[in-house]
Amino acid sequence: MAQSKAAFGLRPMLPDDVPLLAEIFRASIQDLTADDYGPEQQAAWAAAADDEEAFGARLAGQLTLLGTFGGSPVGFASLKNNDTLDMLYVHPGVARQGLGAMLVDALEKLATARGAARLTVEASDTALDFFQSRGFRAERRNTVMLGGEWFSNTTMVKPLAGAHPPKGESSP
């Protein structure tokens, strides 16, 4: 009997996932951003996961979804304040296979259901084309300091169709 090909799945983050998510975060930065950021920038960026307790608290304070393959986490995305896509990272081994799109689609639906009229992201230079292909438009360029290194990124916005205010609230 032939086995079906394993597909990506989604599930909420659990506290025990944090060490693996920190590894996915670091691997994604190291392997996928070299065309846009130098080694010192990559090291400073990846160091944001060195304090796993703080990294886990950041993810736990947001709505964080994991992308899985064969039941194992291979990527994650987080929604902050119902209208900001804060983090989106996939393991380099599954990059460009649709997992990032699946995670963003899920967070867009959740943001819409929670009443957000638009979704905002601070997109790295590496992720610009991905977000543009998903309907986000560039709003402004930014220069930010992280770990003693300067980075450029772009604030991008996507209007959410069919956004409804949460129950008990009315639209303006």
Describe this structure in words.
Helices cover 31% and strands 33% of the residues. It has a 7-stranded mixed β-sheet with strand order 1-2-3-4-5-7-6. The protein contains 5 helices and 7 strands. Strand 2 (63-69) and strand 3 (72-80) form a beta hairpin. The mean pLDDT is 92. It has a domain at 8-116: Gcn5-related N-acetyltransferase (GNAT) (Aminopeptidase, 3-Layer(aba) Sandwich), CATH 3.40.630. The protein has 172 residues and is α+β, with helices and mostly antiparallel strands. It starts with 7 loop residues before the first strand and ends in a 13-residue tail after the last strand.
- Percentage of residues assigned to helices: 25-40%
Strand order of the largest sheet: 1-2-3-4-5-7-6
CATH topology of the domain at 8-116, what is it called?
Aminopeptidase
CATH architecture descriptor name of the domain at 8-116? 3-Layer(aba) Sandwich
Overall outline: globular
Characteristic terms for this protein:
single chain; about 35% strand; about 170 residues; 5 helices; seven-stranded mixed sheet; Aminopeptidase; alpha+beta
What's the arrangement of secondary structure elements?
Elements: E1 8-12, H1 18-32, H2 39-46, H3 52-60, E2 63-69, E3 72-80, E4 84-90, H4 99-113, E5 118-124, H5 128-133, E6 137-146, E7 149-159
Parallel strand pairs: 4-5
Antiparallel strand pairs: 1-2, 2-3, 3-4, 5-7, 6-7
Helix pairs in contact: 1-2
Describe the structure concisely.
With 172 residues, the chain is an alpha+beta fold. It is built from five helices and seven strands.
